[in-house]
TrEMBL record:
Belongs to the LysR transcriptional regulatory family. InterPro entries: LysR_HTH_N, LysR_subst-bd, WH-like_DNA-bd_sf, WH_DNA-bd_sf. One of its GO terms (molecular function) is DNA binding. Residues 7-64 form the HTH lysR-type domain. This is DNA-binding transcriptional LysR family regulator. It comes from Streptomyces griseoviridis. Keywords: DNA-binding, Transcription, Transcription regulation.
Length: 321
């Protein structure tokens, strides 16, 4: 078996997991990756080693002689890597951006991860938008965030990885005396002629404004022009009373004084949420977060796209990856 000059430990972890499960679907679920991505990693390892590691059939997966030979070495390498990372910096807190206080998706995942790995310190941060958080991740000042990955600039995405977490239904915050407030749900067509605030001009959240523009295009709905960011509940309430513009949010947005939150329907617009981190980041807290995201998404049906759900094609491709 030829020996390459370098082997990515991720490829070895993929191999070991498949070797232990002898089933690509179960191994992919255990690693919280798509089965196609896992198969690509195993094929890449086979190419780099110049050896076939598994015999695959429609009924079963078995190790070849070379696979049996590699397995104990791969396990030792991964154990050594885990020990090295634990000794050098992996005990440090993992900084997890939840965007804004009160939003549910990231908070739910973080809470589950803390339960899965209570010995780790997973510290919440609130950076308000994925574009801003992504720059902080790449600069090493933040580790993980949640948000619309497809809305990031290609230069940012090049240094990041992501795991789809949720199709989150979108909603409106309305003044409690707004004509649409009595409706339990607001049909999208009912917003024709309205001007809706969607964070235009906020340098932290251009991915959200872009999603709103795509949603409103051709429907007679305007995105409110850039305005200074309202910081704090009191300022938010004051500006809503002054402008009376509906605000585009997600269904889990916390209630504010003198306002109501109403889901959007016909179609149901979806905000695609991914877990996002820096390429090459290895930390037990990240593994706990990825596992937690997979568990909560499966339990809550977060990745089941509604039949009448709306999402841009570019986002659908990301969420299917």
């Amino acid at each position: 078996m030829p020996v390459p000059s370098h082997l990515d430990p991720r490829l070895l972890r993929a191999f070991v997991t498949v070797a232990e499960e002898l089933h690509f679907t179960r191994a992919a679920a255990r690693l919280y990756v798509a089965q196609q991505a896992l198969s690509r990693d195993v094929r890449r390892l086979e190419r780099e080693l110049g050896a076939e590691l598994f015999v695959r059939s429609t009924r079963q997966v078995t190790l070849t002689a070379d696979g049996e030979r590699l397995l104990p070495y791969a396990r030792r390498v991964l154990q050594a890597q885990d020990e090295l990372l634990a000794a050098f910096g992996q005990a440090r807190p993992l900084l997890v951006d939840l965007n804004s206080p009160g939003l549910g998706t990231g908070r739910r995942v973080l809470h589950r991860a803390r339960g899965l790995a209570p010995e780790l310190e997973l510290m919440a941060r609130y950076e308000s938008g994925l574009t801003w958080a992504a720059a902080e991740i790449l600069a090493g000042r933040l580790d993980v965030s949640f948000g619309r990955y497809a809305g990031l600039a290609p230069a940012l995405r090049a240094g990041l990885e992501q795991q789809p977490v949720r199709y989150e239904p979108m909603a409106l915050v309305l003044p409690e005396d707004h004509p649409l407030a009595p409706l339990p749900e607001v049909p999208l067509d009912a917003l024709a002629g309205e001007t809706v605030y969607a964070g235009a001009g906020n340098p932290r959240t251009p991915e959200w404004t872009d999603l709103a523009r795509r949603l409103f295009a051709g429907r007679g709905i305007e995105v409110a022009p850039p305005a200074p960011l309202a910081v704090g509940e009191e300022e938010f309430e004051r500006l809503m009373a002054k402008t009376r513009n509906p605000v585009l949010v997600v269904v889990g947005f916390p209630a504010m004084p003198a306002t109501v939150v109403r889901p959007l329907v016909d179609p149901v617009p979806l905000s695609p949420v991914s877990l996002v981190w820096r390429k090459g980041l290895v930390h037990p807290g990240l593994r706990a977060l990825r596992r937690a995201a997979g568990l909560v998404a499966a339990e809550e049906g977060w990745l089941r796209r509604p039949v009448r759900g709306w999402i841009p094609d570019s986002d659908a491709e990301v969420m299917a990856s």
